[in-house]
Design brief:
- It is a single chain.
- The N terminus and C terminus are likely disordered.
- The chain has about 220 residues and is an alpha+beta fold.
- It contains three helices and eleven strands; from the N terminus they run αββββββαβββββα.
- It has two domains: about 45 residues; about 170 residues, Sandwich (Jelly Rolls), CATH 2.60.120.
- Helix 1 crosses helix 3.
- A hairpin with a 2-residue loop joins strand 7 and strand 8.
- Strands 1-3-4-11-6-9 form a six-stranded antiparallel sheet, with no helix packed on it.
């Protein structure tokens, strides 16, 4: 009986640990650009940030100027997460495009996953292609939307990288587009070596834990 109880407890503990591991904190500060401190909109609910600007919490503007936008503008664009997002083209059409960079704390040799959402609305604002080049340390990759969009559209992308130092610079720069290259919901998480449990598995784990608690309470009631 003790061995059975022990195995059950181990199973429950493993499930709880797996659930906790699947909810790693984002290492990026202000990844969805929702911290509105310093946001001073123009008549179009848009703020242009010039090269070198650090107005946006956690981020430095590089490469060229960009637009920090609040939803509900005349542009017909939506945010992917929250109420704010970026347009790496700013107001001028065509290149050069803007970029954002941020330095994060990392562990040398540890693998991480950089993910973000790329915004496009090609029928109204040009393209395809619409592209962003993502860089993290020595790893760099260009991600492209090659399809025509008839509304504000967000496409998720992700890139694995391995840290080589205690600090890694993450950069996302516009690579192709015309009048709109959207960016939102930037995340950097630890790349788990264990597979993330399926939703059904998580539910079963929690259900099993609940049944064990209920059974123990019933036993105590009988003894009382």
């Amino acid at each position: 009986m003790r061995s059975i109880r022990s195995r059950r407890c181990c199973l429950v503990a493993t499930c709880i640990l797996l659930l906790a591991a699947s909810a790693e904190a984002n290492l990026i500060t202000n990844g969805s650009f929702e911290n509105e401190n310093g946001f001073v909109p123009d008549a179009f609910s848009t703020m242009i940030l010039n090269l070198g600007s650090t107005t946006m919490t956690g981020w430095t503007v590089s490469a060229d100027q960009l637009a920090w936008i609040h939803v509900g503008t005349v542009w017909g664009l939506s945010a992917q997460d929250g109420n704010y997002f970026l347009d790496l083209t700013a107001y001028p059409a065509g290149p050069p495009f803007g970029a954002v960079t941020q330095s994060i704390a990392t562990v040398p040799g540890q693998q991480y996953l950089l993910s973000f959402e790329l915004g496009s609305y090609t029928q109204r604002w040009g393209g395809p292609p619409v592209s962003i080049t993502a860089s993290a340390g020595a790893t760099s990759q260009t991600f492209t939307v090659s399809t025509t969009s008839t509304a504000s559209t967000w496409t998720p992308f992700a890139m694995l990288f391995t840290a080589s130092s205690a600090n890694t610079t993450v950069s996302l720069v516009g690579a192709a587009g015309f009048e709109y290259i959207g960016l939102d919901n930037v995340n950097v998480d630890l790349a788990s070596e264990e597979p993330v449990p399926e939703p059904g598995t998580s539910v079963l784990c929690l259900a099993g834990f609940g049944l064990l608690v209920l059974k123990n309470r019933m036993r105590r009631a009988r003894r009382g």
